[in-house]
Amino acid sequence: MLSFTVLAARPEFTVSSVDCRDDHRGWSAEQPHADVRLVLVRSGGFRRRVRSGCTDLDRTVGYLGLPGEEEQFSHPAGGDVCTSISLRPALWRALAGDAPRFTGSSLYVDGRLDLAHRRLLAAARGDGAEELVGLVAQAVQQVVTTPAPDGGGDEALVARARGVIADDHPAASGLIPLAGLLGVSPYRLSRAFTRVLGVSLTRYRNGVRVSRALDRLEQGEPGLAVLAADLGFADQAHLCRTVREHLGHTPTALRRLLGTNRAHQREERLTADVVRDRRHGGDRETELLV
Fold first, then answer.
1. Does the keyword Transcription apply (predicted)?
2. What percent of the chain clears pLDDT 90, i.e. is strictly above it?
């Protein structure tokens, strides 16, 4: 029995959890896939056979599947749970180049790759693009001998990216669309930010959004759901987590620190007083008429 659960779906990639409960020593044939797939095992293990040979896969060894490959699988020791990352052609070319050459398809999952995998799963419900690009880039370095050229001029590239983010351009919503707008690979843009500013692009962009959230909270923004939508967060919970991560306080606590809660309370009291006065005034007018 094989089940797929989509953890994150973007125009450039899809991250799925694959749960296989088969227990068989024979080889099951798979239809050739049309996409590039990076598969990492989370528990259990299985065997994969392609023209280049047979590989035993577990948490220490994953694989890169290429379009058109004829694959066969067996599960002599039971089932497994894997993460399968499907890459669209444009993203794959940006990471591996137009005509990559391969040393093989198997990947050794060292500590860095394991950590990148865990970070991707933790970030899957948010943007997750930067974690995914970092993970795939590590895999590409293992099996592709002709990675896409990085080029120079990191400072100028970061300056251009910061300008796009400051202008709140739609492409600033994520690493991959921003890299596309700037005409560079997502991996190069991500690495340039870390080199030049010492922080990831995601953290920098979130820092800008948190600053804008502070501006709105100081101005008395009452609705956190509206604030989250306006600033490009996935939802109110995503806004609250990000604000707390960057500032150590929730938006509600920040209202108290900034004094905006008191202003809201005063406005509410004033509104209530006006309503009460109008109601009582109407009652008095009725009594005089009687």
1. yes
2. 23
